[in-house]
Amino acid sequence: MVLPNLLEHETMAEVKQQASSWVPLLNKNCHIGTQVFLCSLFAPVCLDRPIYPCRWLCEAVRDSCEPVMQFFGFYWPEMLKCDKFPEGDVCIAMTPPNATEASKPQGTTVCPPCDNELKSEAIIEHLCASEFALRMKIKEVKKENGDKKIVPKKKKPLKLGPIKKKELKKLVLYLKNGADCPCHQLDNLSHHFLIMGRKVKSQYLLTAIHKWDKKNKEFKNFMKKMKNHECPTFQSVFK
């Protein structure tokens, strides 16, 4: 790859830090071309001149992935505005722009924050990308203005982030745009849960949920790694 890359990152450390903020989205498989699109920008090949992704590829990835991003309180970032990429010039593509596979979302109907891989490394990555993390029991879940409103019963902070201690007692979480999509973890509220999320304006949004299952091998590995793991610090591309 060549540095600076097409997003003007000048060092490998900066590339790794900025790319980390995209890991949760890549794991959602919202479009078949997401990885090609991002790699062409973060890790461009060494050629005589830069080759940007095609505008249609950017638009296809954006149109499929932004609805998923909105569940996490994100919108398509200004730095990836599609009209800055070429239409007729040489550009990076996967398949012709009219190919159905390239424009078809690959995700599921499950609420994206509930559709998480139960692997210790994936949970650690999501923990680092989240602003806060809590171990909690849930009192009730109800619909409110197109969201799922989650009222905790017992909670233990693992990572407070923007949550102030005095706010913990009356803390309410929201699954953004999640009123009508299934979240199977919430079918049985008798368990403890690992909840991760971020603050958007005045709301605390749930961005990942796992059953707190000490008997599960991967979750046990996560608990061990969490004690000594240091998350990298970086400025997210999402604002």
TrEMBL record:
Alphabetical list of CDD domains matching this protein: NTR_Sfrp1_like
Biological process terms in GO annotation: canonical Wnt signaling pathway; cell differentiation; non-canonical Wnt signaling pathway; regulation of multicellular organismal development
Chief place of localization: secreted
Residues of the FZ domain: 1-94
Disulfide links within the chain: C58-C82
Keyword Cell division: no
Boundaries of every NTR domain copy: 111-231
Domain of life, source organism: Eukaryota
One Pfam entry name: NTR
Keywords carried by this UniProt record: Developmental protein, Differentiation, Disulfide bond, Glycoprotein, Secreted, Signal, Wnt signaling pathway
Claim: Magnesium is one of the keywords in the record: no
Gene Ontology MF term list: Wnt-protein binding
Database matches in InterPro entries: Frizzled/SFRP, Frizzled_dom, Frizzled_dom_sf, Netrin_domain, Netrin_module_non-TIMP, TIMP-like_OB-fold
PANTHER family: FRIZZLED, SECRETED FRIZZLED-RELATED PROTEIN 1
Record-stated family: Belongs to the secreted frizzled-related protein (sFRP) family.
Function: Soluble frizzled-related proteins (sFRPS) function as modulators of Wnt signaling through direct interaction with Wnts. They have a role in regulating cell growth and differentiation in specific cell types. SFRP1 decreases intracellular beta-catenin levels. Has antiproliferative effects on vascular cells, in vitro and in vivo, and can induce, in vivo, an angiogenic response. In vascular cell cycle, delays the G1 phase and entry into the S phase. In kidney development, inhibits tubule formation and bud growth in metanephroi. Inhibits WNT1/WNT4-mediated TCF-dependent transcription.
Protein name: Secreted frizzled-related protein 1
Organism: Leptonychotes weddellii
Lineage: Eukaryota, Metazoa, Chordata, Craniata, Vertebrata
